[in-house]
Each structure stands twice: as structure tokens, then as C-alpha cells.
Target: DUF4132 domain-containing protein
Amino acid sequence: MHNALTPPWLADDAQLELTFKKGKTPLSHRRWPGEPVPLVKVERLQRLANDIASRSQPLAWDAEQCTAEWQQAIAQAMRCVGKASAAMPARALAVLTRLAEEDSPALLDEIVQLHGVEYATEVVIARQNIAAGHSKYPPRKWVFSHPQKENVYGLHSETYSEFDLRLRKHLSLAEEVVWQRCAEKLIAGLVETPFYRQPFIALLLPERPDIANQIAGRCIDNSWRSSKEWLKAVATDPAVLAKLEETWSSDIFTDRQDSDGYFANRYGYAACAALLREQGLAAVARLAIYAHKDDCGSLLAQINHPQVIRLLLLVADKNKPSQLRVAKYARQFPASTLAALAELLALPEPPARPGYPHIEAKKLPQQQKKRAEGWRMLLRTLLNTHPPLAEQVSPWLSAQARELLATFQQSLPAGVTVAVDNPGLPEILLSPPWRSKKKKAAAPRFALSPLKLAPQEYWQPGEREALAAGKPACFFNDLPLRERIRRKGGIVLRELGFEDMYYLFHQYTLNGQQIHFEPQYHRYSEKPVWNEAAMQALHHGDCNILLQAWQSHLTAGYKPNDCWNLYLLAQLPRERVITLWQRINEENFKFVGAEYLLSILGTDALSGLLLALRHRPKEIFPLLMYLGATELALPVARVWRRFQAQSHLARQWLLQWPEHAAAALIPLAFDKAGDSREAAINALRLLYQEGHHAQLQTVAQRWHEPRLWPALEQLLTQDPLDNYPARTPKAPDFWQPALWRRPRLLSNDQPLTDDALEILGDMLRFAQGGHFYCGLDLVKAACQPQSLAAFAWDLFKAWQNAGAPGKENWAFQTLGIFGDESTVRDLTQLILAWPQEGKSARAASGLHLLTRIGSDMSLLQLDHISQRAKSRPLRDSAERCLQEIAEARDLSEEQLQDRLTPTLGLDNPGALTFDFGTRSFSVRFDENLQPVIYDQQGARQKSLPRLRAEDDQTKAAEALLRLKGLKKDAARVAKRLLPHLENALRLARRWTRAEFQSLFVDHPLTHNVTRRLVWGVYAANEPRRLLAAFRIAAEGEFCDGQDEPITLPEDALFGIVHPLEMDDLTRAAFEQLFADYQLLPPFRQLTRHTLLLLPEETSVSKLTRWQGRSTTCGQLLGIRGRGWWQGSESYFCYDVAQHRLILEITPGFVHYSIDAKAPQQFGAITLYYGAQPVAFSRLDPQDLSEALSTIEIISR
Model:
């Protein structure tokens, strides 16, 4: 039907034109032989023979396992050791290359240059049939053998040899007759070649894919998976390729360095490029499991065809580069992308993601839903940005895809163009200053020479001493270096970091443990050749030799985590320590102990510190706080401007060292426009706003330029609305605000116009490093908060679907500006999931956004993350965020915990009204803080209302979404608040009169709970002495046990009364009141289980009352929420101030591997003060009751 049409992409049989990475070329082919091989200097053969002679003295060998012909060749090869012969049989030369373990392509080039391609082919064939190794027992000798045909022999048997693979290049360049003879030899040699080496012979003959097809046909099981995978680079038979589909362990189409568990592959990219060039689009399907890798993905992304983007879409959620690749592809080839998306979304069953890692069955529906949502978003974006595209692509689509495309076209929203005189629209969205014809006046330029200002250092009292008292510093400074070398010898090098197994260094050496230094752990290891030179260099402080030894240590194997021990290095003479510190950072070597070294060297470490900052800024930046130097000012200013994660440290440095900052940054503020100038102005503006204008003026006057200070002050005090970048950043491709929920004006409920949205986008893109354009505050004041939050969430999802490009991180940061409770709720779920997806950095940024939103709900979620996140680093980061918030608000940790209860909209009457158009509903909260829904007539609803046809579908959908969110929020609040209040009872928490009023009486949500508790008035100087008990009545009055109103003193403390603090009459009076008013306490208070010790028990330190009684593992785990915690497999702990109760259990258990019903037996309970047992009489009876009643409840 469409044969006469030309599709807007490549034809299926088109020859692919690809651009290759710099320095990379495809593996050669006779159709594409590439550049000729240059002549090489004839020396490698002789050097190879000499190397064998020097390494193997005396030269002894055993060839009994070989055939007679091979024994003759081995003997001839041995005669050539030290004096290579020009006329050597191919087998003999193959033996020499095995002896020398020579894998250089240049050696094969020399052989071809001397003897021709056919001879080189014979050598390569022979190499497949001989193996050389050392004998297991003395005397040491070479042992030759023939590899078994079916059993893998040797560590590198299943990977290619660069020497052998180089033959492919020479075969590509050879004359046809020569190539034919060589090909026949290679094919004939397959008879004797081990099965696991045969794929590499096929790799030498890309012109004969039938050979690869035959070899694959003989592979009837899953053996030799690594070598068999290389057949994919040559084979063409669909049945063969289907058979090879699950063979992917070597990842043959990706370049990689040699590492633990993987061999180096320098030809992955070249093999992939060659395959695509030779087989075109027919090769794409077999690349499915490699398409998410950079090498393969970057080649596929150049091919304009729906089949390619379909594959890239299926693997896009494997990693961030794959997502970015899809976004770039869609921008470059929109027609192919649109066609692939339409066909994918039209499928009745979603296609599976190819390759690894595999998705668990329970997670598969969520993954497919998320993936399809991203596809729909991209499809809508393409239709919105390229309106004619659907018509161009439709002839090449299936009927189902065309129907789906038509549906999407009809659903696209129309633009909004409201008259510019709309009174509700803020001025900033009508005529922003950066669009004004009247441009900002250019700042004056001053040619200011740098001021000289000596660097300084500052340490808090005791900081240096604390570093010196740390375990690593103490351990490595217990002896003078020379004495250490005399006593320990070569072990000192291992302490310095010359450790073959890095985990021993990090886990044991740095912690002062030495068991791994015992002779039995390294009796068989040979000392490397550089060992003695390194010892002498350490002894004499020779930096150059020591660094050369370190480089040799690193190149001896894959050691990415090896690092210098600066704790020990600091014992060298100061001048040599400074030199080594400088050189270590020049070479970008890793290290540990930088903070300690900085405390020793002070400002002398500055030069090396600047280099270290360049190589590893995240690790080094916190150390800058100790030094004030003009050289540090610009790097710090850039962090303050651009990087939110460490902006608080940058701010601290600038305010701590204002003189150094001003001396370095004032000249830059009047330099040419650019990033450095913007960073300098922002940093100077911070200093000016924080009260350092006098310091700035003093520094400015040192240049003796009268106009400088007025110009600087004008620059720093300009209208905040004029503080925008000189160039307005370009909108990214994912910026499609017409497709998102629009912000609506508070004044008239009108949506923002298309032009206003573009202006809003400009303002959002002005953001850098957590600093936002002040015009956004005007937008927040003019628009409905919920609509802004919805707009920000849609923007964030578009950014995430585009691969979350770091350059456009402002889209993510927008959540912190416009986010509301729904944003907090949804973002928290993502933050908890991101570390498991390899997105820990994004999760940490999400914590900063929750902190910036700053609502009670965001603090509650931070607390939830700090306790419940699976990722330990994420929990720690959330805990640090809470600590920073507490410090900023001048609160203790307990006081912050008291303030983690949101109002859930009870402080805003309109927030709990839900408009469905024709119907409306309201929400109240019951005694368990669960939302209860009522209709307009006041009838209680049993469940969430369902949507009806007569409802306003837009309003009803939004209202229902808010209701669901409110239920989730209420459940989270109740789950935290009720245990928090019970813990306050257990720990005898006290509050001032003002805190009690704001937290428990006036709080619109918490008072639902506090009215059902008995509260107490306590003496300010005796927080444990109850003066009076009372409850909070429904009208807010305070009533005693006789239900008579009382007045609370202003200078007293308040808390939840423990039943042991009340006499029987008072307790009975409150029980009767609660029964009369039908008040159900949120937890057991008046009827709480209590326990008092007998007089003879209070005088001892060990209780045996429960010894021999039993419980279960599940019940023991349950007491962790009541103050107890598991100290080890065999005991639980309970802390009371500086005292600790230890409960012994047998046989004990570990919490991550238990049977909840398994029995456990109680032992004794002992009270300790530090490490000393003490009598139970030292504890308050109330505290003892809370600890021991829990044991009484679960024992039997």
C-alpha cells in the first residue's frame, strides 16, 4: 500500500554510516581494511628471547605430555632462548610466545613483516594447541601440554589474545590469493583447536560467517560461555543467534579495564562498530542486552530507525546514560522515536526488558507502569513540539498504532492566551526585567592587581588534640619512624598502604589491628622487585624513589582503592612530608588521614590541598574550613553559587574568612563577564548582607581607587529583581509546560498564560546552587499553592523521564520552591527507593529539598527516612538534616521531635473541603487521628467517595487524589505521634507552660489525643514531683479529678502523669471521668501495668525474678519499641540516664535470621553504671517499672 513512499528513516537494508569515538576504529574487514600497518622496528623477537632467558635461569622444561612433533618444536624453541633465530618453525615460535606470555599486537606485526601473513597464521593456529606453565613442586621448570579439547585450560583461555586478534587486520589487507590460503589453514586447524578457542578463530574470519554459524551449532551445552559469546560478532544465522541469546557473561561489546572478576577488553567498542558496519540493521536485535552500555548505546544512537530506538527505549530504565541517550535520540530523530513509541504503546502486552539485571516478578507491574508512563510523556512531547510529525509517520504504522496516535493528538491541551491586563497576573509575569528593552547598565571595569594576604589557619579548642588522640593517629605515632622500621621491617610498607588486598588495609591496618601481618598469612608471597628500594627510600626520606615504588605497586594489578596512609607519612621530616603531600596530589593518588595531616602541616599544606580539591572536591571541601587563603576564595564562591549539597560549608567559610574572600573576589567582581565574576558577586553579596560591609570597604580601599567602593556597594545593593544572569538559559527539550497542570491565580482561579509560563521557566532556570530568583516569591504569592505544587511535580517528572540531566537540575530543585504536602509524600517514596536503583546522590538531594520545604510534614518524613530507610548512608544523611534543622531553630533533638506533627489542614478550614463539582465533602479526625469523611448533609461516609458521571471530572479527580493523600498522611502521623507520647510518659518528659500550650493544647490535630490523657503539673526545680493532675476539657479548659476548672501556673513544668505518681483516689477519679465522657485513652495510662521491686531486691545489682522463665524471639523483638535494644545475640539492654540494664537470654538469636516462635529463656537482669554493677535502689521506681513491666508482660 505504501511501497511508493519513502519512510522518514533509513531503509532496512541501508549501509550504516557511523561516526566513531576519537582514537577508536572498528575491527577490520576485507571490505573495510583500514589504514596499512606501518613498518615496525625489528627487535621484539630478539627481546622476547632475551626476556625468557633472564627470567628463567636455569632453563628447565618437561614436554612428556606432548606429541613427538611438538617435543621437537619445543626443543628447537628452547635452543632459541636468548638468541632468537630468523628461520624458526611456526610451532617453535608459538612455544616462545607462550613462554614469554607475550600478547603484543606489535609482535605479530613484526612476524608478518619478516615472514609473511601465512607464516603468522600458522603461528596463531599453533598457539591454540600448546600450553605452558610452571611445575607445582621444586625444582622449578616449565611444563608443556596440549589443552584438552573440551576442558578449559588456564585463566585466560576463554578470552581473546591481542596477538592472535591482530591477525584479522593483516588478513583484511592481504591479497585475495593469500587470504584464501590463510582462511583454509584456519578452517583446517579447527579440527585440532579446543572448542573454547574456536570462536576466536571465527573472529579472524568475518568474511566467512558460515564458520561462526557452524561453530555455534556444535556448542550443545552452556560450557565456554565467555568465549562462545564472541560468535555474536560474526554469526548471521537467526537460529544460531537465538541459541546464543542468553550468553552474555563477558559483555563482549564493551571496553573495560582488567578488574576483579573480569578480563580487560580493549576491542569491545571495535567489535560492536564492526558488527553494525558489516551486518547493518540485521545486527541490532542481538545487541539488546548490551544497548544500555555506553559503547554499544553510543553507536546505536546514531542509527535513524524505529527498530533502534525501540531497543533503546526498552533498556532506558537500566541507568541514567541510557535515559539521556533516549532524550538525545528523540531530539535528533523524532520521526523514528514517534513511530517506535506508538507501536510499543499499542501492544496488548508490554514487552519485557531485555538482558540483565532481571526484574523480580512482584516488581514487574510497577516497572512496566512506570516505563509506559514515561513513553506516553515522551510521545505527547513529540506531538506537541512537532505537530506535522504524526501525519508523516502514520503510513508506516500498524492500524492499532495509528489509532493510538489519533487519540493522543485529540488529548493535547490547547494553549491559554489571556489578555495581558489580567489584574491577577503579577507584574513579573507580564514584563520581566530581562525582557525589557532597557537593559541593565554595564558594571564598571577595574583592572585590579591581586592583594597579598598571608594564609591563616583556625582550629576550635581541642580539635587538633582530638585528631591526635584518634585510634589511627595513636597507633601510627607510637614509635619514631626509624624505630618502627627497625622493629617491623617490611611491614611498615604495608602500613603505609603497600597492601596487596586493600580491604586488609582499610578494615584492619587503619584500626590498629596486626593479626594479618603474622607470617602465616603471607609466608608464600614473594617480595616485589621494588620492595627493597621502597624501604631504603622510606628510611632516607627519598620522595622520588618512594613514589616510583608506589606507581609500580599500583601497576602490578588492579588496585583502585589503594591509598597512602598519611597518619604514618606525617612522621617523616616536615619538608619531606610537604613534598610528598604535593606529589601525591600531583599524581592524583588516593590517601587517608588528610584532616590529621592538615592539623600537622597547617598552611604549609595549602598547595597540595588545592590539588586535592581539584581531584576529589566532595572529600576535601570540608577541610577548607581550617584555612583562610585567597587561593581558596574562588573555589568556595563557585560552590556557594552552584552546588547546594555543600553550600552550607561554603557559606561558613566565607563568613569565617571575610578578609581573604574580599581580597580575592573584589577584582573578579569587576572582571569580564563569566562564571567567575558571577560567583564572586554572589559571595560578596552574602558578606554584605551578613554585616561585613565595613570589612569589604576596608579591603576595597587598599587598591587606592576612589570609585571602587561606591561601584562595589552599588553592585551589591542592586534591586533583587535585577539580579539575574546576563544570558537567559535556553529551555531544554523536556520543557513542555503546555502539557502539564498549570498554576492558577488566587484572585480569579485563571490558569497562567503560555507566555507567563515561559517567563516562569526563565526564572526557574536562573537558579543555581540552591539560590533562586526572588521573582519566584511573587509568583508564589499570586498563585494557588496546590496548583504550583502540581506544576512543579509535572516538571520534575518530565526532567526525570528525560534522563535527569545534571545541567538541568533546576527542574528537580523546583520541588523545594513550590512543593506542598503531596510533594513531600510522593518525594519521600522516591527518596527511599533511589538508593536501591543506584541513585544515592539524587536521594541525598531529595533530603535537601525536604529540608527546604520545611513544613511539619517534610520534617516528619525526614524523621521517617532516618529510621526506616534501607540505605544506611541515607539514614545517616536524614539524621544530619534533622540535626541541622534543630540547630538552626535552636532546639534539642527531643524538642524537634515534639514538633514533627503536622496540622493536616486543620488550621485552614478550606483545606479539608473537597469539591467534586456537583458534590462536596468535608473531613474530621477521630480519636485515633484517622480522617472521617462527611457529605454535604453531614452523613458519615464508610469509604472514599467514588467518581460519578455528573461530577466535574477534573475537580473530582484532584479532590479524590487529595483525599487519598490525606489518609496516607494521617496514618503516618498517628503511627509516630502515639508511640511518641507513650515514650514521653515512659521517659518522664517535661515541657514548659508555653511549650505545653502550643504543642498539646492549641495544636489543631494533637489536641484530639491530648484531651484523652491525664496531665500533671510539676515543680520547676523538681521535675519528678507531681503537684497536681488535670485533663484538658473539650472547650479547652483545664479540669482536676473532680472536673473542676483549675488555673495552671506559668512557672511550672508539665508532663503526662505516670500511674505510680498518683494515689488510688486520684487515679480512680480520673478513670470515672473518662468513663463518663466516653474518652478512650490512646494508650494505657491509668490502667498501665506497673511493677515495684521487693525491699530485698532493691539492695542488689542482679535480679533473678524472671530467671528460667521463657518467651519467644518475636516477643523479644517487640520490646525494642519500649526502650529495650538488642546488644548481642545473648542479651538485651535498657538505658536509664548513665545506667544500663542487661537482660541475659539463652540460647540467643540474631534479628536477621530467626524463627519468631522459637523459644528463648530469661537469665538474670543486671544493673550497671559504666562497667560497674550497682544496686537497683539507685533508679527511680517509675523508670524501673517501665523497664521491668515489659519483661513481666512477655514472660511465661
Q: What stands out?
A: Residues 988-1076 form one domain. DSSP finds 53 helices and 21 strands in the chain. The radius of gyration is 38 Å.
